Amino acid sequence: MSAKSHSFFNPSRELYYSDVLPALSIAFLNDPDNPKIYTTSVTGLSELKELEDLYIDELNEYTDLLQQKVHSLKLYLEKLKLEKLENYEQRVQYVSNPLKAFGLLRRTHQDWPKWHNYTKSDIGAAKLIAMEQLLAKAPGNDDMMEAYKGMHRIEEVYDLEAADMAKGLLLGKQYDAKMSTAECLALGDYMFNQSEFARAAKWYRLGLYYNTEYSNDVFKQIYGFESDEIRKMFLIARIKGASVDDVPIYLRELSHGPHTPLWKSEKGIPTAYQEGCWGRLPRRRDLTCRYNSTTSPFLRLAPLKMEMISLDPYIVIYRDVLSEHEIRLATDKSNYGVMFDTWTYDADPRIKLERISKGGMLYTKELSVVNKRIEDMTGLNVSLTDELQMANYGLGGHFLPHYDFVNLTRRTTLTRIFETIGGDRQVTVLFYTSDVELGGATLFPKLNITVRPEKGSALIWNNLDHTGQPDVLTEHGICPVIVGSRWTLTQTLAEWDQMFKKPCNTKI
Ligand SMILES: O=C(O)CCC(=O)C(=O)O
Ligand SMILES: [Fe+2]
């Protein structure tokens, strides 16, 4: 996790306005020493898929070249075989004929060195070099670690069974994807190292269940897992996770299918966070939706669909507020140049809030109309802060619960920066620029509110209460994404920019 050890206040780089603009202070880390991380966004992962496809193309061409070589050598051997003689007499008879003797001399003198050179030739060397260059871009340990953590997060938060995950069954939906023995065992080892012994045991048992005996030596070397070794790891995980007295039970568990629950591994009571992420929180029925045609004069012409989510703190959703064209612009990675891994820091820079995503700042003239729409929806000013912050989440991507306000009374370096740019974050405006197939809801844990991303919607809330104080009830986070590419665009409206818009002591 090397990128993440950097401080937001990295003295080697200037602090840009964009760094403090997004919800909380997001450090866009562009560290040339740091290898690229693919796992943290679906756009990054799609680049890795492209890399794999390129590698496979090269490998295909390389094997074609090797095959051509084998084919040519075989043809040569076949040609010689026709002339192979059994004994001395036959050979004498053969070389007694001057035409044949001459041919033999010519072949061994002229052809052999050429064939030998051909045999020794580095056919495919260029392909090997190309493959090595691709290999240099392969994910490193940090990336692999993020992928393990993402899988762990999905399994844990959504309480998924390893056996279901391995066969592609995610939250009751069957996907066309299966996990191999290698993948099950890799997760087994990871969980073991995290002291998650019951989970590790399940992954080991799955690995054992799907283990294949390979007859090919190379396959054995690369993929071959010793079943005895896996059994041993299962038993160690069980003993470490439970008790040494029950080894006979664990041995029996090994002969059961992967769907049989492990002894004494009943599920715990789901936490409120889990309930929220599953979308099982009861919906409030007392709030209404309506067409808003009053917040700004423009809305009189084009009212927007508004749904109340909470009155205090004030939270609303506007539906269908982005056009397909705007959504395309906002989810086109070419509009962001480099996308950075985003880690978010509290006003106290020592507190690091985990956010697994890639982000970038979007400023295109075309999207300035989105800022205008924000003003129409909120009746407030988007002034200095006219850049919109994009986020795209990756494998198990999430954002731990946090506040968007910085709380100026804390008087830290960060809050002082906010004082120069219009005060605290009065309002957060979050556009969902994609749907998310499974997971990835925005959760307000203190309010028991879950909002599912819906492409084209905007979720808007007031981070400060009507007296201008930070409202801790606005704590919010993002549940891990299970399936889908989650895209968002965020804008925050600064407190003092609303001086002439928002009367004191009133709600927006
Ligand atoms: O994308 C979301 O659901 C929330 C994003 C967020 O909390 C933020 O940008 O501060
Ligand atoms: Fe936030």
UniProtKB/TrEMBL annotation:
User: GO molecular function: any one?
Assistant: procollagen-proline 4-dioxygenase activity
User: Which Pfam families does the entry mention?
Assistant: 2OG-FeII_Oxy_3 (PF13640), P4Ha_N (PF08336)
| Gene Ontology cellular-component terms listed | endoplasmic reticulum lumen
As cofactor, the record names: L-ascorbate
Keywords from the named record: Dioxygenase, Endoplasmic reticulum, Glycoprotein, Iron, Metal-binding, Oxidoreductase, Vitamin C
Q: Where, per UniProt, does this protein localize?
A: Endoplasmic reticulum lumen
Annotated Fe2OG dioxygenase domain ranges read 384-496
**Which EC class is the enzyme in?**
oxidoreductase
Quote the function comment for this protein.
Catalyzes the post-translational formation of 4-hydroxyproline in -Xaa-Pro-Gly- sequences in collagens and other proteins.
- Family indicated by similarity: Belongs to the P4HA family.
Identification of the protein by name: procollagen-proline 4-dioxygenase
Q: Which organism is it from?
A: Drosophila lebanonensis (Fruit fly)
